[in-house]
């Protein structure tokens, strides 16, 4: 199951009246349960990891209160990295001019590296997450004016 399908499942459970969903495919098990406004995601092959996704944080606008400019939000839950490796320069810094489609960062999710691309042309005015920080779906990552 790809990351996009996983996000769609999380959104579907979030929007529905369901309180749980179990899914298994090719040795990968997924168990979603919704409790008090949150969805618990358990995924893995043998050891099961739990990740909590707050339903109220599903839109980037809710994470980007204050400040002006366009917000690039996280398309998935994972670990945020500003550079392709520990000893490499960051993809972008505050003050850099970026173009739509340019790589801004990487989010590691389920041992896959996902490039985060700019949705806007402009100047990076804020990097909202720290390198190595766990980020949630919809969390503001960058502000671009």
Account of the 3D structure:
With 145 residues, the protein is mainly beta. The protein folds into 2 domains: 54 residues, no CATH class; 85 residues, Beta Barrel (OB fold (Dihydrolipoamide Acetyltransferase, E2P)), CATH 2.40.50.100. It is 12% helix and 43% strand. It is built from 2 helices and 12 strands, in the order αββββαββββββββ. The strands form 3 sheets. A 4-stranded antiparallel β-sheet has the order 1-2-3-4, covered by helices on one side. It has a 4-stranded antiparallel β-sheet with strand order 5-12-10-7. It has a 4-stranded antiparallel β-sheet with strand order 9-8-6-11, with no helix packed on it. β2 and β3 form a beta hairpin. The radius of gyration is 16 Å and the shape is elongated. It starts with a helix and ends with a strand. About 14% of the residues have low confidence.
How do the helices and strands follow one another from N- to C-terminus?
HEEEEHEEEEEEEE
User: Which class do the helix and strand fractions yield?
Assistant: mainly beta
Q: How many domains would you count in the coordinates?
A: 2
Cα separation of the termini: 35 Å
CATH architecture of the largest domain: Beta Barrel
Q: How many DSSP helices?
A: 2
Tally of strands: 12
Annotated CATH topology of the largest domain: OB fold (Dihydrolipoamide Acetyltransferase, E2P)
* CATH class annotation of the largest domain: Mainly Beta
Shape: elongated
By oligomeric state, this entry counts as single chain
Spans of 5+ residues with little confidence (pLDDT < 50)? 45-65
Task: Quote the beta fraction.
Answer: 35-45%
CATH superfamily membership of the largest domain: RNA polymerase II/Efflux pump adaptor protein, barrel-sandwich hybrid domain
Sheet with the most strands?
Answer: 4 strands, antiparallel
């Amino acid at each position: 199951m790809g990351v996009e399908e996983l996000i769609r499942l999380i959104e579907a459970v979030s929007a529905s009246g369901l309180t749980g969903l179990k899914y298994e495919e090719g040795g990968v098990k997924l168990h979603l349960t919704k409790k008090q406004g949150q969805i618990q995601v358990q995924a893995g092959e043998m050891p099961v990891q739990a990740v909590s996704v707050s339903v109220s944080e599903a839109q980037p606008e809710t994470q980007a209160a204050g400040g002006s400019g366009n917000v690039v939000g996280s398309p998935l839950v994972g670990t945020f990295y500003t550079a392709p490796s520990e000893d490499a320069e960051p993809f972008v810094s505050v003050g850099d001019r970026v173009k739509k489609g340019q790589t801004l960062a990487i989010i590691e999710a389920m041992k896959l590296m996902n490039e985060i691309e700019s949705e806007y042309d402009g100047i990076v005015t804020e990097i909202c997450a720290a390198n190595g920080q766990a980020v949630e779906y919809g969390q503001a990552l960058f502000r671009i004016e």
